[in-house]
Amino acid sequence: MQYMIIERFHPGKVKALYQRFAEKGRMLPAGVQYINSWINEEVTVCYQVMEAESTEKLQQWVREWNDLADFEVVPVISSAQAKEKVFTGG
Predict the structure, then answer these.
(1) Which 8-state DSSP code applies to residue 77?
(2) CATH homologous superfamily, domain 2-88
(3) d(C-alpha 19, C-alpha 17), whole Å
(4) Alpha-carbon span 43 to 34, nearest angstrom
(5) Could you read off the pLDDT tens digit of each residue along the chain, which spans 90 residues?
(6) Contact (CB, 8 A) for 68 and 3
(7) What strands lie across the sheet with 2-9, from one edge to the other?
(8) Cβ atoms of 78 and 13 closer than 8 Å
(9) What pLDDT, on a 0 to 100 scale, did the predictor assign at position 29?
């Protein structure tokens, strides 16, 4: 399953977040894969697409970072999957 992660950086913690990333990488548990990410111009919000075997696995990753940011996890499907769902009811 793919997820859109909306990561809102805690005020004053962006530098610490990037330092941790430089030292430890993404710290993804087995079963979680990073797809891509985008940051708003103010460098206060990160939008990431991740793939995970389960939300539990994804929450393991969130726990590594939740002292520096707040996370919203949204399950997503592709546009093609959405179209198929609309027209076939599947």
Answers:
(1) -
(2) Dimeric alpha+beta barrel (3.30.70.1060)
(3) 5
(4) 19
(5) 999 999 999 999 999 999 999 999 999 999 999 999 999 999 999 999 999 999 999 999 999 999 999 999 999 999 999 999 999 876
(6) no
(7) 32-39, 45-52, 2-9, 69-76
(8) no
(9) 96
Paired tokens of 57: 């696995």
How remote is the C-alpha of 53 from its chain's centroid? 14
> What does the pLDDT read at residue 89?
77
- DSSP lists the bridge partners of residue 46 as 7, 39
Q: In the structure encoding, which two tokens stand for residue 69, read together?
A: 């940011």
Please state the domain extents for the chain: 2-88
pLDDT of residue 90: 64
HSE-CB at 12 with a 13 A cutoff on CA atoms is: 0
- How far apart are alpha carbons 60 and 32 in whole angstroms? 9
Query: What is the pTM for the complete model shown?
Result: 0.88
N- to C-terminal Cα separation, the chain = 16
